[in-house]
């Protein structure tokens, strides 16, 4: 038989789990600037090579197509290309393409 105090205890435990998750989430959010700075520093050589290759190829616009966490990485890449190559970027909507099948006309894009 389920006792009232057991149910109340479970509700309290679930609230505490929720608080714990929020504390971890806040901690991760506050760590982002330092983590992103480290990523830039660690990969600057590769970033420069990629930017140089794009410039030599005459790329004047970049369209990223990604889903999920790759979508978030693409947002970061948009900033890198805008800052280091002065190349405007956009983020495609791959679901629209795979589900509805539009045909894009893209020239000199990466």
Can you walk through the features of this model?
Strands 1-2 form a two-stranded parallel sheet. With 110 residues, it is mainly alpha-helical. The model has no long low-confidence stretch (mean pLDDT 77). Helix 1 runs parallel beside helix 2. The protein has 3 helices and 2 strands; from the N terminus they run αβαβα.
Q: Concise description?
A:
With 110 residues, the protein is mainly alpha-helical.
Number of helices: 3
Got a strand count?
A: 2
Fraction of residues in H or I helices: over 70%
**Radius of gyration, taken over Cα atoms and rounded to an integer in Å:** 22 Å
Features:
single chain, 110 residues, 3 helices, 70% helix, flat
Helices and strands in order:
Blueprint: H1 4-56, E1 62-64, H2 69-85, E2 89-91, H3 94-100
Parallel strand pairs: 1-2
């Amino acid at each position: 038989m389920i006792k009232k105090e057991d149910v109340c205890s479970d509700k309290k435990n679930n609230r505490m789990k929720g608080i714990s998750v929020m504390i971890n989430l806040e901690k991760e959010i506050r760590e982002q600037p330092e983590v992103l700075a480290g990523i830039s520093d660690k990969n600057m050589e590769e970033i420069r090579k990629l930017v140089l290759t794009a410039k030599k190829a005459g790329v004047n616009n970049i369209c990223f197509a990604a889903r999920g966490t790759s979508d978030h990485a693409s947002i970061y890449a948009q900033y890198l290309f805008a800052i280091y190559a002065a190349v405007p970027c956009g983020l495609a909507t791959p679901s629209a393409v795979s589900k509805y099948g539009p045909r894009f006309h893209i020239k000199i894009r990466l």
